[in-house]
Amino acid sequence: MSTIGQALTVEHLSKRFGKVHAVQDLSFSVEPGRVTGFLGPNGSGKTTTLRCMLGLVRPTSGAARIGGHVYRDLDHPGMIVGAALEASGFHPGRTARGHLRVISDALGLPKSRADEVLELVGLADSAGRKAGGFSLGMRQRLSLAAALVGDPGILILDEPANGLDPEGIAWLRGLLRGLAREGKTVLVSSHVLSEVQQTVDDVVIISRGSLVQSGTLADLAGNGAIRVRVRTPRRESLVAALQASSGGNPPTSVDPTGPDELLVTGLTPSDIGRRAFLAGVELHELAQQTNDLESLFLELTATGTPGGTA
Amino acid sequence: MIPLLRSELRKVTTTKVLFFLTLAVAFFTALNVFLLVYLTPRAMGVENNDELLMNPDYVTNIIGAAGSSSIFVLILGIVAMTGEFRHMTITSTLLVTPRRSRVLITKGIIFLIIGAVIGLIAFATAIALATLTLSGKAHAPIDTDIALQILGGVVLGFAIYAFVGVAVGALIRNQVAAVVGALIWVLILEALLTVFVDWIGKWLPGGALDAVLQATNVSGRGGSEVLSIGAGAAVLITYAVILGALASATTMRRDIT
Prior knowledge:
By secondary structure, chain A is of the alpha/beta class. Chain A has eleven helices and 13 strands.
């Protein structure tokens, strides 16, 4: 009974809480059949954006649409979108099974559905236990189970890997990949890229409420051009030599990082060495920077578009 | 609508608050029966209640103890509604039903039914204990008509009162504030207000409830006038609807963060 997902679109979404601009003119889209990572540091507006998508928070302007409709206008939203927002939305005295039956009842599904999804998230043994006594990892699994009750085509998960042990994270990865393979739309937020790096196809990166970058993970990796640190007593001459059009392609950027130091992006070390040699500039160090996605992510979100006051 | 009603009912049956408050209603009703049977004669300075038992009003008041625990039903409605915000289950509720007024209406309907059932339990407790304590003694007969009026009043009154509780809880989302506020209103403010402005009493929620429950207390409400049963019920429902509409326009529209 697997449902195929629809696209999610966020159009010029802004949300202000008092003086705080939580989200500012944010636009991106999320495609079915792929896992999309929604990334940004804590407090960057991820949760607010997700809550706007789900009709829980009213946008100040703009909209988030699900297959072209705002959430409130969906006929049976629980059968179209499943969301796990945070691990705290349980009555502490209600059992895991009871919590899920409240949802399956509202969706008009048979009672047995609760046990099916508990089985799916590995909580079958704790079905009769009260959610109040659950560990963070168990709460995450129960949240996920609640999102899956209606077998929706779209899944929106806020920091689902939080509190899961490495084994749990590996299991989650397999589950999400499987759901995307079935054609579902999967949007997963996280503040740590490395946590979802092996799971996601696409990324949407935000910082201070604004979009920094969106595209495929491969694009993001490609974007991380080579960066080389150069030390030279003749900094200005080297800059001139690198940017001289006679030498070939100009570097993407040349940033002075110290009195005798430069950070060059877009040229290989051999390229820089050759040009320095031709210009007769003495070099003391020529080192390629390790460029993993995580540091790129940190760099992107730290220098991202200046956002609001938040 | 049916799935949503079932879901709202499931919420109540999967936690303990309904059970404990129903137990409190039964216990409080029993306590009132015993007070009337054993303490009233002493308070009146008579040896025993042999003579009192021949007074049909006294017998009616014993069964009328069924209406004494209405406050618990009000609290039940408040706790159920504010609990959604306290435990943040409102998030999953609204994910399934994004139209918030629909959530409020369904919960209101379920608590009308639950209130009615608790009223039935209160009446059953009172009539059973009254029969038990009066057995073997000479007493004025229990008038079936009056007993049925008490039953009707308690079932109707408790049903609407639980519904009022839901509306209060929607308007005051903080559980402690809502419960304490309701208690202060019912136990102190309304009585005070009635002392100063006599005519207003019968139009206030407590006065309206007294009108619905009038069969339970033949000696009346300290001489104050009450509305007819129908008018009392209508006034009480109007309060619930106004509070609910006010909540829909204000607190229920807020962002859920």
